[in-house]
Design a protein that fits this description.
Length: 263
């Protein structure tokens, strides 16, 4: 009777303690424990290991959703052979995240369109989320517009502070931001706020010398670059467009295929 009563109470107790995975698995695991004669410590450890693993899985799922990373762009699908100047070992080290993220180091990725900058930044984002970090991927133009709206509503400081929860902020296609579109000093304020505290990864088609088209004045351009490169890892991806080479390969393959003739 005691065992029956305790067994009946378990679902309510586990629900109260917010242990849904244990609530689901305990009958199966306890039966195995009884059959194999497990000590109580092993049974408890097994139950809690499953609970912890499921919580990690759910957390990673939430962080992947909020990160807004492009789908399918992971390190497993990145063609390192097409970009020989990017070291696979170096990227694997960066994917662990702990050292450079803890120091607020930035990653600046330069190269012409189509060489895989977006793919590489997204792949690092995926790996870092798997490692337990929080990441946000955004087109730079979209984020600038959001921050401009926040400034107009007198909540720019709060908007920038909200981004602090992300260990890495990925700004894709910085070169497409133009100061003629609107006042882009909000971008400088974001860079200044994260300086030496939180990391950023920026992809750009243009080198630093062309950034005077982004910020309102030369002094701000110099100051922004100075803050970004003070603690930075620079990845140069100056190679032919991967997309263009892929298209050429497909065209060559299609031309090589024999044409079927009707009998």
């Amino acid at each position: 009777m005691t065992i029956t009563t305790d067994t009946a109470r378990l679902p309510l107790l586990l629900t109260t303690l917010r242990l849904p995975t244990i609530a689901t698995l305990w009958p199966t695991i306890s039966q195995t424990a009884d059959e194999e004669g497990w000590p109580a410590a092993k049974t408890l450890a097994t139950l809690f290991e499953h609970e912890v693993a499921e919580r990690v899985r759910r957390r990673i799922g939430r962080h992947l959703t909020e990160a807004r990373l492009p789908g399918g762009k992971t390190l497993d699908t990145f063609d390192f052979g097409a970009v020989p100047m990017v070291s696979r070992a170096r990227i694997a080290a960066l994917a662990e995240g702990d050292a450079w993220l803890g120091q607020g180091t930035n990653i600046l990725c330069f190269g012409p369109p189509g060489v895989g900058k977006t793919h590489l930044s997204s792949a690092l984002g995926h790996a870092l989320i798997d490692a337990g970090y929080r990441v946000l991927f955004t087109r730079t133009t979209d984020l600038v517009q959001q921050l401009q709206t926040a400034r107009q509503d007198l909540r720019l400081a709060a908007a920038i502070e909200k981004l602090d929860k992300y260990h890495l902020l990925i700004l894709d296609d910085l070169s497409y931001v133009q100061k003629s579109q609107a006042e882009t000093s909000v971008l400088f304020e974001l860079i200044s706020a994260r300086y030496e505290r939180r990391s950023m990864m920026i992809t750009a088609n243009q080198p630093f010398g062309a950034w005077d088209s982004i910020f309102p004045d030369p002094a701000m351009t110099v100051a922004a670059i100075d803050r970004l490169v003070h603690h930075a890892i620079i990845l140069e991806m100056n190679t032919d467009s991967y997309r263009r080479k892929s298209a050429q390969a497909r065209n060559t393959s299609s031309k090589a295929e024999p044409t079927a003739h009707p009998n």
